[in-house]
Specification:
alpha/beta, 6-stranded parallel β-sheet, 6-stranded mixed β-sheet, 40% helix, transcription regulation, Lambda_DNA-bd_dom_sf, Peripla_BP_I
Length: 339
């Protein structure tokens, strides 16, 4: 593994100059600073290691990486984390990845160049993520938000995604629905969506019912009526749908109503996240509620403990159903979709 001395040699500067380029870039000439940074890139040396190697003062900055801010769950999470971090004397730096693994690698690098003391990450797939593997090797403190990784070296805070979606599916089953489908983003790219689909399947099998293949939408948070139209017009159309997140459920309800389908008259729809927006729409959204404020404060506490030297741990927080007008018992439906 490369060290600062090797970076300085490749850049053609002294070790002290290389150290200043990382620790106080404003006091180093731009051309020299660029030489040092380019040498570090070529050697795979990450500048923020210097903070640990030289025991420089901490920045009291935490890097936060989320897929996007279009989904209100991440905006609510960030606001709650910002409050929790501020109480502990920390500030947050935010970056988004748009569900791109390549972008995840780039933004992690960018934040570490800012010498953040640790990272909070929501990634596309935590189980096979090279960025996370690299962070463990480099002893960079980080906590995963919303993930349930199998790797004991990863610290994480989440709800039980599988159990949460099983809870949602049983809620519909207990209301008399038998033909229930699940709507999710493209190819279940998100590890959270895959766990939620497993929970849906589990609940259906418990009742001796067939689970349906996932109904795939073109985006994680945006529905397209064309993707579901053939199923709705077929002989085995569902009477209820569970969605992998709330924003997708809200988008789906809008698409259904725009195309002449009554929610919940002809289709019951349930989401997953419990975002505030869902309780303000009409019909109000039935949803699996994640305790976002508790999750955010737990994430910050866990990360600060790691920064102080604690070992990685994981927490799984309880979730619950928030009833809403987007679902109703099967026998109360205006039109029987199974006829």
């Amino acid at each position: 593994m490369s060290d600062l001395k090797e970076v300085a040699r490749l850049a053609g500067v002294s070790r002290a100059t290389a150290a200043r380029a990382f620790a106080s870039p404003d006091v180093v000439r731009p051309a020299t600073r660029d030489q040092v940074f380019e040498a570090a890139r070529q050697l795979g040396f990450r500048p923020n290691r210097l903070g640990r190697q030289l025991r420089l003062q901490t920045t009291n900055l935490i890097g936060v990486i989320v897929p996007n801010l279009l989904n209100p769950v991440f905006a609510e999470q960030f606001q709650a984390m910002e409050r929790a971090a501020r109480l502990k004397g920390y500030n947050l730096l935010l970056a988004t990845t748009d569900y791109s693994s390549e972008r995840e690698s780039a933004v992690v690098e960018e934040l570490l160049r800012q010498r953040v003391d640790g990272l909070v990450l929501t990634v596309t797939d935590a189980e096979s993520n090279r960025v996370l593997q690299s962070l463990v090797k480099e002893d960079t403190p980080f906590v995963l938000a919303y993930h349930q990784p199998g790797n004991p070296d990863y610290s994480a805070v989440s709800v039980d995604n599988r159990a949460g979606m099983a809870l949602a599916t049983r809620y519909l089953l207990d209301s008399g629905h038998r033909r229930i489908g699940m709507v999710a983003g493209p190819a279940l790219q998100s590890d959270r969506a895959r766990l939620r689909y497993a929970g849906y399947c589990e609940a259906m099998v418990e009742r001796g019912l067939d689970s349906l293949p996932v109904i795939e939408m073109p985006a994680h948070t945006q529905a397209d009526f064309a993707a579901i139209e053939s199923l709705l017009r077929g002989p085995h159309r569902p009477s209820a749908l569970v969605c992998s997140n709330d924003l997708l459920a809200i988008s789906l309800i809008a698409e259904l109503r725009r195309n002449g389908w009554s929610v919940p008259g002809q289709l019951s729809v349930i989401g997953f996240d419990g975002i505030a927006l869902g309780a303000q729409m009409h019909p109000t959204l039935c949803s699996v509620v994640q305790p976002i404020a508790a999750l955010a404060s737990t994430v910050i506490d866990q990360l600060l403990a790691q920064i102080a030297g604690a070992a990685p741990i994981s927490h799984c927080l309880p979730c619950h159903i928030r009833p809403g007008e987007s679902t109703q018992p099967y026998e109360e439906m205006l039109h029987d979709p199974l006829q």
